[in-house]
Amino acid sequence: MSNYSFKRAFTLAEVLITLGIIAIVAALTIPNLISNYKKKVLESGLVRFYSTINQAIKLSEIENGERRFWKDYGYDSCGFYEQYLAPYLKTTDYECGYYNPANNKHVDSNLAVGIYFQSGDMAVFSYGRYFYYIYNTKKYYKNYPVMGSGNPEDIAISDEYGKNIFVFVLHSYNFNSGVVPYGMQYNDTATDEQLMEKCAGNRHLTCSALIAKNNWKIPEDYPFDF
């Protein structure tokens, strides 16, 4: 009998092969995990914004009367926001005006209001009617254009709509509806196929409506990647 015992170890080649397999599996699964995480965060953010802004309108109506009788501020987003929404929203800050991404300078204007929520989300309220919920706040925080203007700086970020920016609108036909995903103010009976087609072809219009109609879940066949 030998007094020596032998233990078998992995060879260098076997270790390298194992590491290679792990790397391949990680490369295949991690992007999906990240994408799914982003979707969940976005879905939660959209629901949170929708609930928060409409709750603020209901609270405002208690003190200011029914929205149908509120003062018409026209394109004065700042005046409308300060009177009817600001006192009823929990925010860290808001600012009237907007920023020109081309030179990173603030533009004094009542056309737009940047709203910074305690959750870390933000939204831009423009033209006294439109709300642009922004998911990627790190990119646009304190550096947003007057969205919906059609100006070059707004058009330059058109690829962000449906991915990081989602449009809502203050319903002007049915005052009981409050703020709704853009597209639902005209026809809330649109089919999933119609919304999907419009979201893919003209993304700034109905992507938020598509997600809302899908119980605030991003559809599996959503036209854009995250």
Q: Sheet bearing the most strands, described?
A: 6 strands, antiparallel
When the domains are counted, the total is 1
How far the N terminus sits from the C terminus, by CA atoms, comes to 65 Å
**String of helices and strands:** HHEEEEEEHHEEHH
Q: Rg to the nearest angstrom? A: 24 Å
- Number of separate strands: 8
Q: Helical stretch count?
A: 6
Helix content estimate:
40-55%
Could you characterize what this model shows?
- The protein is an alpha+beta fold and 226 residues long.
- The chain has one domain (17-213).
- It contains six helices and eight strands, in the order ααββββββααββαα.
- Helix 5 runs antiparallel to helix 6 (203-213).
Highlighted features:
two-stranded antiparallel ribbon; 226 residues; single chain; alpha+beta; six-stranded antiparallel β-sheet
